[in-house]
Design a protein that fits this description.
globular
């Protein structure tokens, strides 16, 4: 989801020195250079707000799809996201990246990290609960670790990380109820959510190989990437989904919140957190997302919850945490 997109994309664009699993640590040098206001809420409050914003993203997607087609939800989301980041860039007097080669790579990155996964999640939530979508999103670090072992020559496996990979996918099977033959599970929707999660690390690796060391700021690169993704959806959406017959107020508000808060404001909060408490502490927000997504779906949408969902989610998160470990080979 968006928290992985922003966190990993910004990290890999600031340096090419570390592996994909540890790339988030490289945010510090770039983020600390960003201006910060003198009076800001305590970092714990901002950490909690960020967890809530990203955790509720899957609920907002579900509400948005109740009034609009998935492509329309994604387009609206990207428009609001781009507007918030464009305003932030204007305030900080940031310039857009330069060079045709950079923009060509940004076009591919926008598809892999924004247009494709955002659309897949929106389509998936037509047939699966937002709780399941949130847990599928938590598998991104697992896919990332598996892909980095193949695509990044400097990223070598360790026993702990390989164990984490296996544990994580065991958690996925637990969530999906594999021992019951996946009964009552919409295979197509679940596959879309998992493909969306897989798209993120593919995009991270592509960005790492093509856009690291461009010299542009993280805010500028991310804003440009979201803008390109919005243009991609602006072309596709009218052809596939047409134009809405009417404006549904509540779903429209959900889409606006998803874009303006879920990525726009959340990104700015994340910058501040990394600058103040460091990337390691800030990254811990990742482990609260599926928990909040599950609670929101059950409490506000009345989605069913079996014992295997929270148990499997805990196993997935434990596996994801192990894949980020930096130990001996």
């Amino acid at each position: 989801m968006c928290y992985e997109v922003v966190y990993r994309t910004v990290a890999v664009m600031t340096t090419a020195a570390d592996t994909t699993a540890a790339a988030s640590a490289d945010l510090t040098a770039d983020v600390t250079a960003l201006p910060r206001t003198r009076r800001t809420p305590d970092w714990r409050l901002r950490f909690g707000a960020l967890s809530l914003i990203w955790g509720f993203s899957f609920l907002l997607i579900k509400v948005g799809t109740q009034g609009y087609a998935p492509f329309q939800v994604t387009l609206g989301r990207l428009v609001f996201e781009t507007a918030v980041l464009a305003a932030a860039m204007a305030v900080r007097r940031e310039r857009l990246p330069r060079g045709a080669r950079t923009w060509a790579h940004l076009t591919v990155a926008a598809f892999l990290l924004n247009a494709l996964p955002f659309s897949l999640f929106a389509y998936s939530e037509l047939t699966i609960p937002s709780t399941l979508a949130g847990i599928c999103n938590a598998t991104s670090p697992l896919w990332g670790m598996a892909l980095s072992l193949v695509a990044l020559s400097e990223d070598r496996p360790t026993r702990v990380r390989v164990a984490g990979l296996g544990l994580g996918f065991l958690g996925v099977l637990t969530v999906l109820g594999a021992w019951q033959g996946f009964q009552g599970l919409d295979a197509r929707g679940t596959a879309m959510a998992l493909l969306a999660s897989l798209s993120y690390p593919i995009g991270w690796i592509y960005v790492r190989r093509t856009l690291a060391g461009t010299g542009a700021s993280a805010l500028s690169m991310t804003g440009a990437q979201l803008g390109v993704a919005a243009l991609q959806l602006a072309v596709v959406t009218p052809l596939v989904a047409g134009v809405p017959d009417h404006l549904a107020p509540l779903p429209l508000l959900a889409i606006a919140a998803l874009g303006a808060l879920g990525t726009g404001l959340a990104l700015l909060i994340q910058y501040g957190l990394v600058a103040e408490v460091g990337p390691t502490t800030a990254q811990m927000v990742t482990y609260f997302i599926p928990v909040i997504a599950t609670g929101a779906g059950v409490a506000f949408l009345g989605e069913p919850l079996s014992w295997s969902t929270p148990v499997g989610a805990v196993i997935v998160l434990a596996g994801a945490a192990l894949t980020q470990a930096r130990g001996k080979h």
